[in-house]
Amino acid sequence: MSSSQSSNSVLKLCFASNNEHKLSEIRPLLPEGFTLLSLADIGCQEELPETQDTLEGNARQKAEYVRQHYGVACFADDTGLEVTALNGKPGVYSARYAGPQRLAEDNVTKLLQELAGKSDRSARFRTVVALAGADGTMHEFAGEVAGHIAEERRGTGGFGYDPVFVPTEGDGRTFAEMSGTEKNRISHRARAVASLLAFLNADAVAL
What we know:
By secondary structure, this protein is an alpha/beta fold. It has one domain: Maf protein (Alpha-Beta Complex), CATH 3.90.950. Helices cover 27% and strands 23% of the residues. The protein has 5 helices and 7 strands. Strands 1, 2, 3, 4, 5, 6 and 7 form a 7-stranded mixed sheet that branches. The protein is globular and about 55 Å long. This is dITP/XTP pyrophosphatase. Its EC number is 3.6.1.66. Keywords: Hydrolase, Magnesium, Metal-binding, Nucleotide metabolism, Nucleotide-binding. Its cofactor is Mg(2+).
């Protein structure tokens, strides 16, 4: 928040994503006084560039693209599922693990196939959020949650790899078996966004 803004003013941030699942997860996490703008809200119709080989690089690239082309403060995230037995894969390629079609069903099928017969099914979800302030500043925030990969899909909620990811801090259910509220208490994205909001609430960046 800039020093010229009132403490009662509404802070508008664009979330640089076209993923409605992510938007619906993050909106409830924003405290009173914050308004989340989607890419549609700012008139952004094109697909954002995502050509880096790290989560940090992709998050920065997307946030900076929106700032430069649309002149608004925004944040972007990139999330990866890192599986120990697969040497950290699919990682930064999680969304397109089974191919450029980016189908979650195909990605989960490939993951289960590659883990077949492996005793170590430990994994972690990791999210990196990059915030590009209107003044050109860039900041990063991260969140992660440890767990393991179930042997079969369970649950109908969530998205992506949620039907097979069982968080260590939970009660044995997959993310897809939890309500959105339950997932948000411990999820990697919620933790990264919480760090972002703490930063903003401390008046550490000009929007």
